[in-house]
Design a protein that fits this description.
Elements lengths: L1 E8 L5 E5 L6 E6 L9 E5 L11 E4 L10 E14 L2 E2 L2 E6 L16 H13 L9 E7 L1
Parallel strand pairs: 5-8
Antiparallel strand pairs: 1-4, 1-6, 2-3, 4-5, 6-7, 6-8, 6-9
């Protein structure tokens, strides 16, 4: 299944940007309190609804980071099931649709184990130093 992902945070960044859906502009939410950086471009899938009441979060694996507001036509290869201080906060793992460099990635198990561990580690610790924020559970499905 293909869909569009709106990127909010490029790979390698600590600034957490969010699209202000009322104005359509990009707002700096905060800089991560930990030294961790987003392991992939991060954004959301339009016209979806996650357990937290927001559009479903998505990570897109790309050879180069893009920019906040970039629209990427993507396909899913798996899901990272996560629970934080507010409840369910799942992340859909994607690759660009039609990219021949990513054609072999059809399932989460096609992604190198180290890459899965790197993404998992990020989401397990990225809120550690923020008062009132936590990650309660995190695991791969798909």
């Amino acid at each position: 299944m293909d869909f569009d992902v709106t990127i909010e945070i490029p790979k390698g960044h600590r600034n957490k940007y969010e699209v202000d859906h009322a104005s359509g502009r990009i707002r700096l939410d905060r800089t991560l309190f930990t030294a961790t950086q987003y392991p992939a471009d991060y954004g959301f899938i339009d016209d979806t609804l996650g357990l937290d009441g927001d559009p479903l979060d998505a990570l897109v694996l790309l050879p180069e980071p893009t920019f906040p507001g970039c629209l990427i036509h993507a396909r899913t290869i798996g899901m990272f099931r996560m629970t934080d201080e507010k409840g369910g906060d799942d992340k859909v793992l994607c690759v660009p649709a039609g990219d021949p460099r990513q054609e072999h990635l059809r399932d989460i198990h096609h992604l190198a184990k180290f890459d899965r561990l790197e993404i998992q580690h990020f989401f397990e610790v990225y809120k550690d130093l923020e008062p009132g924020k936590s990650v309660e559970g995190a695991t791969w499905v798909g």
